[in-house]
Amino acid sequence: MRPNKSMPVIAYPTESCYGLGCDPRSRRTVVRILRLKRRPQSKGLILIAADPQQFRPYVQADALQQAVQSGNWPGPVTLLLPASAKCPVWIRGRHTDVAVRHTAHPPAVRLCRRLGTALVSTSANRSGQRALKRAGEVKRVFGKQVRVMRGNIGRDRRPSTIKELATGRILRG
Question: pTM for this one?
Fold first, then answer.
């Protein structure tokens, strides 16, 4: 599947808040998300998927296999894995790793399956502000700049844990 050049920025429910997402292969749409959030590209972005195999273009194969066998997924654990040579800089930022999460949250799973790809997943908010929890809040902050998918967020109160798979070090959570 090729990236949809005209794909909108989508706001969708995740485990703990609304997320902003798009096809990670669409540099133009990723840049739109970064501008909406006022977030520097150098920080990198998280990718979510309905199936870990959707991460294949972005993650080194042996690391992906280790992640699948690690017992961390599916669920609200984002793993830092070595990026593949094909992983775009607009996804990994200044890092050599890429942040990926095999989500179990039904609305996010359905969206990844419908699009047939991993999906950019960053909290729906401006950088430094609180994450938005309701569709109406997302519409109020971002207006027509995003397409809002209605649904319920999960029960998690905090964002996903971010963990280096190789070392087990927790960076967030």
Answer: 0.93
